[in-house]
Specification:
By secondary structure, this protein is α/β, with parallel strands linked by helices. It has one domain. Helix content is 31%, strand content 12%. It contains 4 helices and 4 strands. Helix 1 links the parallel strand 1 and strand 2. The longest helix has 10 residues.
């Protein structure tokens, strides 16, 4: 058994962007998750919302920031509900990198949001 997680960037369609593509409802991902229950999977882009004990979502991409911030009330609720399943990891890291979710979350905390309290 490997203790290294698998990070996936899922694609909308084959050849559209890098990463594996799946059908609506992510049946291929579900099949992999069921066959490898001891492997931790971290997914960003389409697929981060799946529920599985060994599947985590990555918030580092711009698409995740857009999903969280376009409806702040729902976004905060989502962050609270899945706080133990959401991570921040990035394959790009430089001094001038724009990571809008960081100030967004800092402002939420300053505004009284407390993500350490679950439902």
């Amino acid at each position: 058994m490997s203790h290294l997680p698998v990070l996936l960037h899922s694609a909308v369609k084959v050849g559209g962007v890098y990463g594996p593509a799946d059908d609506r409802g992510l049946p291929r991902l579900e099949k992999v998750l069921s066959k490898l229950p001891d492997t931790i999977f971290i997914v960003y882009a389409m697929g981060s919302g799946q529920r599985s004990p060994h599947l985590y979502g990555d918030l580092s991409a711009g698409s995740e920031f857009n999903a969280i911030s376009r409806d702040p009330e729902y976004g905060y609720k989502f962050l609270e509900e899945f706080q133990d399943k959401l991570l921040f990891g990035t394959d790009i890291c430089h001094v001038n990198q724009d990571v809008p979710i960081v100030p967004y979350l800092k402002n939420a905390l300053r505004g009284g949001k407390n993500f350490s309290d679950s439902f």
